[in-house]
Write a structure and sequence with these properties.
The chain is an alpha/beta fold and 219 residues long. 45% of the residues lie in helices and 16% in strands. It is elongated and about 85 Å long.
């Protein structure tokens, strides 16, 4: 199994009210981090079978933006076991739920996310100390019954990649959302509304034309 650990991107200052903090969105820097990171992962041909995120807004936004960039079109799973206060055992339960998947991406928060990564790659019940920056991604893969850290990519490295290749699409604006059920449904609804409006206008014009002919018969 391959696990991609993704910590949520930059989201401004923490709010004192816990309820309001749960709804704290990504700021402009965070959106840019997600776009650049997602495109780097896409260039690395990263592919996953499931994306599982903490239900907090900054995490779900990070998950959606990165998933869109790597071409993931499946369901975005929300799991309370990825909240900031969750335990390692709760995190292990998340992995058990998706054990049939070959590769998953989990999106969460510090301080527990760095701890989860450290415990996952450690042996004999110990913990390796790892510091995941906001917006960072780490790839862990099972090898001979052990979980091995393959690499970790930070937003700074993703930005360096963009600056080193100024003509590459990393610097361009985010593309339109990839096709998914909700997006397709909205597109169909808009098209139907436009078609109905066009037909109504055509009928009105035809009716007006007939009325004019009736009032002015040919002599």
């Amino acid at each position: 199994m391959i696990i991609y650990f993704l910590r949520h991107a930059n989201a401004g200052q923490k709010k004192l009210n816990p309820k309001k903090d749960e709804k704290r969105p990504l700021d402009d820097e965070g959106v840019r981090q997600c776009t650049q990171m997602g495109r780097v992962l896409s260039a690395m041909q990263v592919s996953v079978d499931a994306v599982i995120s903490s239900p907090l807004k900054r995490a779900t936004q990070t998950a959606a933006l990165v998933a869109n960039e790597i071409g993931y079109e499946g369901k975005l799973y929300l799991d309370d076991s990825l909240r900031p206060e969750s335990s390692y055992e709760q995190f292990r339960e998340v992995l058990r739920k998706h054990s049939k998947a070959e590769a998953v991406m989990v999106v969460g928060h510090n301080p527990n996310f760095s701890e989860f990564l450290g415990h996952t790659i450690a042996t004999n019940g110990n913990r390796s100390f790892v510091d995941m920056k906001k917006g960072a991604v780490a790839k862990v893969e099972s090898e001979q019954k052990k979980m091995v850290l393959q690499w970790m990519l930070t937003p700074r490295l993703a930005r360096a990649s963009a600056e080193a290749n100024p003509e590459a699409p990393l610097q361009s604006a985010p593309p339109a959302p990839k096709s998914n059920g909700l997006f397709d449904a909205l597109q169909i609804k808009v098209k139907k509304a436009k078609k109905a409006k066009k037909n109504k206008k055509a009928k009105k014009s035809k009716k007006k034309s007939k009325k004019t002919k009736k009032q002015n018969p040919r002599r």
